Amino acid sequence: MNHLSLIIKREYLTKVKNKSFIVMTILSPLIFVALFGVVAYLSQLNNNKERTIAILDASGLLENAFENSTYTKYNILSAVSLDEALEIVKLSKDYGLLYIPENAEIKDISKGIKFYSEESPSLTIMNSLEGKLEKSLTDIQLLNEGVDIEKIKSSKISVEIDQESFSGQKSSKIDNLLKLAFGGAAGYLLFMFIIIYGNMIMRSVIEEKTSRIIEVIISSVKPIQLMMGKIIGTSLAGVTQFAIWVVLGGIILSVGSAIFGMNISEMQASQTAAVQEAMQTPQADNMAQNVILAIQNLPLTNLVIAFLFFFIGGYLLYSSLYAAIGAAVDNETDTQQFMMPILMPLILAVYVGVFTVIEDPHGTISTVFSFIPFTSPVVMLMRIPFGVPIWQQIVSLLFLIGTFIFTVWFAAKIYRVGILMYGKKPSYKELIKWLKY
Questions:
Q1: For 32-59, what is each residue's pLDDT tens digit?
Q2: Which residues contact 160 (CB under 8 A, 6 or more apart)?
Q3: What distance lies between CA 291 and its chain's CA centroid?
C-alpha cells in the first residue's frame, strides 16, 4: 500500500483545485442563504397581505363570531340579499363573501354555509373560518339545550401522563421528538453525503477512464489501491467543502447581523419578550423542564461515537460500489441501469427509519433492518437515541465492516477489468464474468 497516500493526495488536490469545486464551495452557502431569504421574504409578503372578508349572516346568530385581526378584516353586511352582497364584494374587490343562511335548526345552518370568491381561497383562511363557525354554532346549540357552557369549560381537565422506566428514569413525549430529530438528522446527513460524494467518485473514475489516463496509472498501482485512494481522497475533499460551508455560513450570519443589526435586535427583543411572557405560565415552565430532561436523557456520547463509525462504514461501503459502477461504464448515461440497486437500500432505510423507528424503535422490523449492512448505517443511527444495547451496535458494526471488506473485494474485481474496457455497455451477466477473471 506504498502508493495509497500518493493517490489520496493526488485525488484530494485534484478535487479542491478544480474550478467548479471552488466556485460551488463559495457560492453554495450564498445561494442557500439567498434562497432562504427570498422564501422568507415571499412568505412574509403572503402572510402580511391584508384581506377583507364580507359576512352576510341571514340567521343573525353569528355576527359577533368574527373579530378583526392584523391582516384579516371582516365586513358585516346587513339588510341586503345574497345577490346584492355578491355585487358589493365584486365592486369592492374583497377577498370573498361568507354566506350564513337563515334556518330554525342550528345543524341545518351549518350545512348551508357557503364561501364565494373570485379565486380559490386560502386553506388557512378556510380552516380559520370553519373553526370560528364551529365554536360559535356549538355554543349556541348548547345554550338552546339548556347547557351551562361555563360549567363545561371549568370542568375540563387536562391530563399529561408522566413517563418513567422500571429503573426510575423519567421521560416525556418530548423525548421521542428530540430522539427522532437527532436520529433523523444523522441518517439524512449520511444519505446526502453518500449521494453527493458517491456520484463524485463515480464521475471521477469515468473521466479518467475516458481520457485514458488510467492506462498509465494502472501500470504502477494496484486497482484496489487506486479505488481506495479515490474514495478516501474524495471523502477528504467533501469534509473540506463541508468545513468551508460551516465557516462561510458563520461569516455570512455575522455580516448579516452587522448590516441588519437593528432589525435583528428588534426581532430578538420581541421574541425574548414573547418567550418570557409565555414562560410565566405553569404549562410552559413544565414544558421547558421536559425539554431539559429530554436532552439530559439523550445518550450523547454513544450517539457521537456510533455516528462516526456508522457514518464512515456506510459511506465507504457505498462509495466502493459507486467506484465499481464508474469503472464498468464509459459515460454517466450508462450508469442508470446500475444506480437503482444501490439507491433502493438507501431509500428503504430512510423510509424504515421515518415510519417504523419512531413508532416502534425496538420492534422486529426496526431491529432487523438495523443489522442489514446496506440499511444499518441509517436505521441504527435512528434507533440509537431510543436506547440500543451496546452489543447490538457492535454486532451491526461488525456486519457492516465485514460487508465493506467483501464489497471492496467485489468492487475491485469489477474495477480491475472495467477501467480497461471501452466501447461496450456492460450487463449484469458481463459483470459476473469479470468477477471470475
A1: 777 777 777 776 666 666 788 888 888 8
A2: 286
A3: 21
Cell of 266: 428588534
| Adjacent-strand bridge partners of 75 | 54
Name the helix (H) or strand (E) containing 377: helix 376-383
DSSP 61-86: SSGGG----SSEEEEEE-S--HHHHH
Beta-strand ranges (E) seen in 210-285 are none
Question: What is d(CA 261, CA 254) in angstroms, rounded to the nearest whole number?
Answer: 9
pLDDT for res 398: 92
Identity of the highest mean pLDDT range in 34-48, 251-265, 282-296: 34-48
CB 270 within 8 A of CB 358: no
Longest dimension (CA), the chain: 95
Please tell me the distance from the alpha carbon of residue 433 to that of residue 427, in angstroms, as a whole number: 10
Contact assessment for residue 229 and residue 8, using Cβ atoms and an 8 Å cutoff: yes
Edge-to-edge strand order for the sheet containing 114-116? Answer: 72-77, 51-57, 96-100, 114-116
Contacts of 219 (CB under 8 A, 6+ apart): none
Cβ contact 51:95 at 8 Å? yes
For residue 195, CA distances in Å to 226, 252, 318 come to 21, 27, 9
pLDDT at 399: 92
Count of beta carbons in the 10 Å neighbourhood of residue 79: 5
Q: Do the beta carbons of residue 298 and residue 179 sit within 8 Å?
A: yes
| Cβ-based burial of 116 (10 A; exposed 0-12, middle 13-18, buried ≥19) | middle
Strand partners, 99: 56, 114
Q: pLDDT by residue (tens digit) across 106-133?
A: 777 878 888 888 888 888 888 888 888 8
Q: Give pLDDT tens digits for 290-300.
A: 666 666 666 67
| Residue reference for cell 428514569 | 169
| Average pLDDT of the segment spanning 207-223 | 69
Contact 206, 331 (CB under 8 A): yes
Asked whether residue 262 carries a pLDDT value surpassing 50, the answer given is: no
At 278 the pLDDT is: 43
Q: What is the pLDDT of residue 111?
A: 81
Which single residue is written with the C-alpha cell 450508469?
Answer: 335
Q: Which amino acid is at 215?
A: E
Query: Mean pLDDT over residues 222-230, rounded?
Result: 78
Helix (H) or strand (E) holding 56: strand 51-57
CB 1 within 8 A of CB 225: yes
